[in-house]
Amino acid sequence: MLHGLQYLHEQGVLHRDIKGANILTTKDGHVKLADFGVAIRLNAHPPLGEGEDEDKEGREEEVDVVGSPYWMAPEVIEMNAPTSACDVWSLGCTCLELMSGGKPPYFHLGRLMVAIIYVICVHILLHYYLLRPFGVVHVSVL
Fold this sequence. Notes:
Blueprint: H1 2-10, E1 13-14, E2 23-25, E3 31-33, E4 40-41, H2 74-77, H3 84-99, H4 111-131
Antiparallel strand pairs: 1-4, 2-3
């Protein structure tokens, strides 16, 4: 698994959804990483969608929050640009998942954990994109 992840990162690819459900094994015992649905290539621009101006100048870099919440690195939740460290975090969570009988870290918190993550994301969006330009430097979530 580590060799495959190292190879991906050397190629500039981030998986962004490493978890036990995305790890497959062959009959020979080889480990394969699956589900590259949210993978990205670093320093690559996504293709322009229909109707968008082909002039990329002035476009802001978008940061997507993708992956499975229980395995997400803190910087992903904080909406920072993803790095290979995010995959390493997810791999660590996957190791804990596999050692604990198939449950990811904080799974016992149930859907509450997902709700907390959404609240954090909304807080960050509200603060950084809406209020900060107007001089508001702190917003209480509760």
